[in-house]
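Regression test attached.
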Amino acid sequence: MLNRDEAIALWRANNDDESLFRHALSVEAVMRHFAVTQGEDPDWWGIVGLLHDIDYGRHPEEHLKHSRPILAAAGYPEEFIHAVDSHGWGLCSEVEPVHPMEKVLYACDELSGFIFACCMVRPSKSVLDIEVRSVKKKWGTAAFAAGVRRDVIEKGAAMLGIPLDDLIAQTIEALKPAAAEIGLKGNL
Ligand SMILES: [Fe+2]
């Protein structure tokens, strides 16, 4: 169940969008990072991150309405499914994040996408040299990455009790080891 190759195979059986795959790998990397900092199991957290959007490719309009049957059929336990469902809290699910892992997922799903967008407008197109202040500079520009819910990220940071700047800094660090596979190595 916590075999990464099997998780990737399950993801691919349900999705075929490469940018969505890079998003899945990005969130996996972030989850692994925070699991280590919190003394938790990086495989467990990482695979939740990898599979959190499992039903999005085929059911973008009914996101999270189809993840339970997919994950349950593959043998993932209730607490795994709960974590996946909770990342859409208040958006497309009523399951509130309670476990620290769920709060990290809730906060960092959108944040990893925002950092990706910030990297893409840099000369290097890389996460390897981006700084918190570049991300913060874009934060207040509503037209930039307009689809990213800053309020959700801020709510997630508050749930975790981590200042937003620290959350951004840690998420940047978390993405660096995965830079090549998520398309954020740029020209560095
Ligand atoms: Fe996501």
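Expected vs. actual: identical. The pocket of fe (ii) ion is lined by residues 23, 27, 52-53, 109 (CB under 6 Å).
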